Amino acid sequence: MLLEDFRPRSKLVTKTTLVNKPKFPIIDAHNHLAEPFGGGWDNKPLPELLDLLDEAGVTHYVDLDGGWGEDLLNKHLDHFKGPAPEKFKIFGGVDWSQWKEKGNGFPEWAAKRLRIQKERGAEGLKIWKPLGLHVQDDAGKLVSVDDERLIPIWETAGELGLPVLIHVADPVAFFDPIDETNERWEEIGAHPDWAFTSPPFPSFMKIMDDFKSLVTRHRATTFIGAHVGCYGENLGWVGQMLDACPNYYIDISARLGELGRQPYTARKFFIQYQDRILFGSDMSPDLDAYRLYYRFLETDDEYFNYNTSEVPGQGRWYVHGMYLPDDVLKKIYRENAMKVLKIK
């Protein structure tokens, strides 16, 4: 039998708690609405989406798709923000492809575009993982995450009061050799373009150290580290960065698989850094996905699938709930995002 055909069914008898509604209203601070990750809601009736979010208990929704380009930013501002201004916050982005054409003037040009994006309605800046992995300057040289030429962009974001939600690197195993020891072997096999083996790519820690350098340097700018600060496998390291950078927050999007397999450490981490963690799902608007998050955060259920698919997508393991205290839940579900995103 091939491993890909293996579908073990656990015989462990544990309780299942259905959490259809969260204990407190949700601000989803990391999600998408366009294809491929957002379900293509920008081509569907808006009332259908609003009804789904209401059923899930989501009062505010941060759409990051503007980071893919200003055309998409403008489309989503018109389609979502215009009819439902209190429900949606749309983030803008940087068009790295312009560096070759703009040359040394690119950083200032990008900073000016950010000002225009805010005037148009953008309420944050989304930076994708190509920075540090793929983005090249006009000389064809790979640009590091903390490249000092980009200072105008980060300073402008701070001046405008725009939080920077930044995704650098990816799961650590994506940078390892793709062999029998790689815990993400199946996932990388399904998505070979997610492999960033070093070399030729920079090492995982090189990217993370550069990221910490960036956030440390720009203390007047608020940064949100996507996906548990892009290092959910090492909460001790993430905690050290939170300690060192008071302008830094993290979201928990798309990392139940990492958090839930270390429930004791994760629970302590969430309680210690309860004022610095934002809720995010990164699963597009999906009731079943939301309810998995609520079950994970609110219950003490043991050994359950963290994914809506039959085989967990990020590795063949199950997770355990964290049964967080109500005061911590309220901050993570809502209050921290209200502060960072300036929601009244």
Describe the structure.
The protein is an alpha/beta fold and 344 residues long. The chain has a single domain (19-340), classed as Metal-dependent hydrolases (TIM Barrel, Alpha-Beta Barrel), CATH 3.20.20. Helix content is 37%, strand content 9%. The chain contains 13 helices and eight strands. Helix 4 packs parallel to helix 5 (151-160). 43% of the residues are buried. The mean pLDDT is 96.
- CATH architecture descriptor text: Alpha-Beta Barrel
Work out the radius of gyration.
20 Å
**In percent, how much strand structure appears in the residues?**
5-15%
The CATH class, by name, is: Alpha Beta
Helical fraction = 25-40%
Number of separate domains: 1
How would you spell out the order of helices and strands? EHEHEHHEHEHHEHHEHHEHH
* Overall spatial form: globular
Main β-sheet description: 5 strands, parallel
Question: What is the mean predicted local confidence, pLDDT?
Answer: 96
Task: Give the arrangement of secondary structure elements.
Blueprint (H helix, E strand, L loop, with lengths): L25 E6 L14 H11 L1 E6 L6 H12 L6 E3 L8 H4 L3 H15 L4 E3 L23 H10 L3 E3 L18 H6 L13 H14 L5 E3 H4 L5 H10 L3 E4 L4 H4 L3 H10 L4 E2 L8 H12 L27 H15 L4
Parallel strand pairs: 1-2, 2-3, 4-5, 5-6, 6-7, 7-8
Task: Give a short overview.
The protein is α/β, with parallel strands linked by helices.
List keywords for this structure.
alpha/beta; TIM Barrel; five-stranded parallel β-sheet; 9% strand; globular
